[in-house]
Design a protein that fits this description.
By secondary structure, the chain is mainly α. The chain has 2 domains: 7-272, no CATH class; 282-531. The protein has helices spanning 2-9, 12-22, 24-48, 52-63, 66-72, 81-108, 110-115, 117-121, 130-157, 161-188, 192-216, 225-230, 242-261, 287-314, 320-324, 328-333, 341-365, 367-373, 377-381, 387-421, 426-435, 438-454, 462-475, 483-486, 504-527. The radius of gyration is 24 Å and the shape is globular. The chain starts with a helix and ends with a helix.
């Protein structure tokens, strides 16, 4: 028995150490991001409500709003800081840790097979299942690190220990569950993109099923891993057994993945890849057509997600003063110089949507870097496709895709607002407010292109730009950042519509910075070697 176990685990430790080293920065950023998500909710809630009466009024408003429940989860103990933290952060924390586990597992399984490296590695003295075992363990360890970070941030903030532990343990359980799902998806599909798409679809369905179940008050919430997590009742009478469901899902999916792995060829998935057409479409002969073919599914899914997110923000309607309370914190948070708290709130809300949409913009702008790292660009450039046309093709798709994603989010927030208030003119007004921040979004995409052209190794630091803009928006004024630090965010210079009227001069200035950075990236890319 011991010898059989050693045989099946041969080389796993070596792979695990290599994977953890390779993913150390990814784990660090997810740890900081998810832990900050939970901690910042406690900080903002304590600042918003300075009396229990305010807490009670806001809790009653939120708990009676089906849109809020669909977006965040069942309303429990919303008149306490801990209850608000669990309600506002748990669903999104589960999604984020699920995405992290998906990327870790998919990167080291299907990604390595697709690149042709795993077959070379397996020619050594290693067990056939060693790479996938190490990938699964890396996903579990990363989830554990994030779970500890969440618990530590909440306990360190001063919230009750039991609730903090419940949220951290639940985050860990969600990571394990989706790591197992990702491992199974890697056996069913034949490309890393399909693996991420299938696992992401499972996460999305989990969120949707939970939302429907929570609004209807039925059993559907118990068909969702996110529903299991929220069923732990953090800060409202903790229950620990739902985490066993999360761990069981991860274990069952992992066992299924190993069973499927033994029945497929290396490099292939159980689901056969659909044969393409005999001749390529004429559009693929251009840089724009090729880039669109690679990124069209991302545009579609991001647009759908941003529309739903916009509806969630808009469904808060015009009852903002009750929700926000009368504290100085809320006045500082939304004091954008506008005549009303309502307009200021939606100015901040649209900017939040823009920063979320920056996830598409930056990932799209980094797609050329990913193609280059995969070794596919050099072959393309050996044909009649020039570097400039290839680069501008991807830049064009990023810009056009960002416009579509922003349009979806603007329509979503306006549609959600109109559903609650019956003010259908808000659709156009709030969509326009979202586009007022477009130039700042283009700067973040241009930063990714500039880094990809000048220093490809550091291209992924473009994500730091998104995080920096978020921190400046949420905490820049409250924590009294130096003005020069606040001014580094391109969104600082743009008019906060609808709280303030549109100002075209700073918009065009920020847009010109984005163009200059993109051209700088193009010049640098043309002058360096392709990797």
């Amino acid at each position: 028995m011991t010898s059989d176990l050693r045989y099946h685990l041969a080389g796993t430790g070596i792979f695990l150490r290599a994977f953890l080293r390779r993913d150390r920065w990814l784990m660090l950023w997810y740890l900081l991001g998810i832990a900050t998500l939970y901690w910042s909710q406690g900080y903002s809630v304590d600042g918003l409500y300075t009396s229990q009466a305010e807490f009670d009024r806001a809790a009653a408003t939120m708990g009676d709003n089906p849109a809020f429940i669909a977006m965040a989860g069942p309303a429990r103990a919303l008149n306490t800081t801990g209850g608000q933290v669990a309600w506002q952060a748990s669903a999104f924390g589960a999604i984020l840790v699920g995405l992290m586990a998906m990327f870790v597992v998919g990167r080291h399984t299907r990604g390595e097979e697709e690149a042709g490296r795993e077959e070379l590695v397996r020619s050594g003295v290693v067990a056939r299942t060693a790479p996938m075992t190490a990938a699964l363990l890396a996903g579990v360890i990363a989830s554990a690190v994030v779970g500890v970070g969440v618990s530590a941030s909440l306990i360190g903030y001063g919230l009750p220990v039991a609730g903090g532990l419940a949220l951290g343990v639940g985050v860990f359980g969600c990571g394990v569950a989706y790591a197992g799902v990702g491992l199974l998806a890697a056996q069913l599909t034949s490309t890393a993109r399909a693996t991420y798409g299938l696992t992401g679809a499972v996460i999305g369905v989990s969120y949707a099923v939970r939302a429907i179940g929570d609004v209807s008050g039925g059993f559907l919430s118990w068909l969702s891993p996110i529903g299991w997590y929220q069923g732990m009742h953090a800060y409202s009478g903790e229950r620990w057994w739902p985490v066993l469901l999360l761990l069981a899902l991860g274990a069952v999916a992992a066992v299924a993945a190993y069973a499927v792995f033994d029945r497929r060829d290396i490099g292939a998935g159980v689901w056969a890849t659909r044969a393409g057409p005999g001749r390529a479409a004429p559009a693929l002969l251009s840089g724009v057509g090729l880039a669109w073919r690679l990124q069209r599914s991302s545009v579609l899914w991001w647009s759908l997600g941003m529309f739903i997110g916009g509806v969630g923000y808009g469904s808060m309607g015009d009852d903002i003063e009750t929700i926000m309370g009368d504290s100085e914190f809320s006045k500082d948070m939304f004091s954008l110089g506008g005549p009303s708290l309502l307009d200021s709130f939606y100015a901040v809300a649209t900017l939040m949507l823009v920063l979320i949409a920056a996830g598409f913009t930056v990932s799209s702008a980094l797609r050329p870097h990913s193609e280059e790292q995969a070794g596919r660009v050099e072959s393309l450039l050996a044909t009649g496709l020039s570097r400039t046309r290839w680069y501008l093709g991807h830049a064009t798709v990023t810009v056009a895709g960002s416009l579509v994603v922003l349009l979806a989010s603007g329509i979503g927030i306006g549609f959600g607002y109109a559903l609650v208030t019956d003010d259908w003119s808000a659709v156009l007004r709030l969509t326009g407010a979202t586009f007022a921040q477009l130039a700042g979004l283009f700067v973040l995409g241009a930063l990714a292109r500039l880094l990809g052209g000048v220093a490809p190794r550091w291209a992924y630091l473009a994500w730091v730009g998104v995080a920096f803009c978020y921190v400046v928006l949420m905490f820049g004024t409250l924590l009294k950042f130096p003005q020069w630090v606040i001014d580094l965010s391109p969104f600082t210079h743009l008019a906060a519509v609808p709280a303030l009227p549109m100002s075209w001069q700073p918009f065009l200035l920020v847009l010109s910075v984005a163009v200059a950075m993109s051209l700088g990236g193009l010049v640098a890319f043309r002058r360096r070697d392709v990797h």
